[in-house]
Queue: 2 jobs
Job 1
Amino acid sequence: MIRVLIADDQDLVRTGFRLILQAEPDLDVVGEAAHGAAAVRMAAQLHPDIVVMDIRMPVLDGIAATRQLLTAHGTTRVVILTTFDFDEYVFAALAAGASGFLLKDVKAAALADALRTVHAGEALLAPSVTKRLIERFVAHQPVASVAPTSLGNLTGREREVLVMIARGLSNDAIASALFVSPATVKTHISRIFAKLDVRDRAQAVIAAYNAGLVKPEVQA
């Protein structure tokens, strides 16, 4: 069972998401928070697997709440709700450790699958959109601290897989390109996460860009 906490200052959004998710047999909405401070407090009490986090909330915004929550509860994943109209907020969410993004108008059928995807750590949400945001994020940020020794610990095949992850390929696409099974790809990815000390695919992609393994292709 995947435990979900919904943080949004709009009651209608929280209610709609809860009704959609509670209809799924493997998803359990364990709480709702109307602002970031409540989300941090409730996460400490309820230990959700995923927090669906709005950005613009009173008391404590979603960026600060994400940073606090992940510092205290590193195994929890945060999915940011965004309209993509305010890219600086999205960049800040990436820096704070968010694992993915959902549009506020996400289709009901896609919402549950998106949370399962993030929980499994198998693929980014909306790979083309998230990849673009990460490229812009990296291009506008100082080079981060991915130690060369960490990247050097990767095998040649693991580096190859990391590049494919950074380019937005799914596990199945990577398996097809490398003529291996999806299970083998999952093993490579697990080892990449461990060696780079990252929690999920989004953070691994940022690490690949920051280490210079992949170059941003930012549109003017």
Job 2
Amino acid sequence: MSILDFIFYSFIVVVFIQALFYFIFFGRFAFLKQNKSTLQNIPVSVIICAKNEAENLKNFLPSIISQDYSNFEIVLINDASSDHTLEIMKHFAEQNTNIKIVDVKNIEAFWGNKKYALTLGIKASKNEFLLFTDADCKPVSKDWIKEMSSHFNNDKTIVLGYGAYSKIKNSFLNKLIRFETLVTAVQYFSFAKTGIPYMGVGRNLAYTKKTFFNANGFINHIKVRSGDDDLFINQVANKKNTAITFSKASFTESIPKTSFKKWIKQKRRHVSTAKHYKFKHKIILTLFYSSNFLFWILSILLFTLTYNWQYVLGLFLCRLIFQYVIIGFSSKKLNETDLLIWLPFLEIFLIIMQLTIFINNLISKPNFWK
């Protein structure tokens, strides 16, 4: 067997692996219909941890306060801010009796550790059902709490939601950020429906206080600076206790980064937590990302060398069709259909950025959350 034969057969295997991922795993979400939620008026604590977020709280906190839900409190955690975050929190608390403030001071053992601040906020909350978002997020509807909390029941103690990013016209970076967010959501929703949930995003996530304390909170990864959302879910989620919701009323929307430098800095922190995932999750994710990378490398190589180009073209187009079908149905669910026309370009660029981030993380550790 020649080297070109080996590359060609490797390409066939890679396309087969990609097809399995798209139809066996991601198809579980793409073709899924949202179950009708059971509306209930359970008491909910909305928890927001903020560090130097005065302006964002001023702009976005009203969208939480005005939620159409009769039984909720808002726990605002000031994580040792150096701006006017605490003053803004106090201003809103004076006007709303359901707001509770937790003012966290830096201590040497947990300096700059968001998990420490969140733990204090969770302990201070009065309700069993906890709903998390960030200070730069806003619910897209007044039914956000209602939609997220409606998926709790005796078995489901974790609810994964979608945290979108707002759209900016004529911005390639914005499209790239939203595409990466879309792909990540398709993955964690799909794996949850397959029975192997592995992460959630803190912009839109809910779980019970009992779930938190039964796991001893963040203690298993307290020294890892990031991962208050995905590492915790990776630790406690299973096929029995995890629900997902993708109704548009359950979405939150955040402010995206506006420079590649800031976005890469943010993604370096996020990616650094993946090495702490459970072994089975690392294997599955590594297989997917590796096959994704090899698909483009091998196809470009084979096209360049014009080796069995008719078969290569057929396999190439089949894989693109798989992807367009699955991402197309998924993007419709998550209101991101404008990205479809850019899909191959966004994927190639995202692979390059992910490889760059991976190499940078090997060379140096990413910074803290703020």
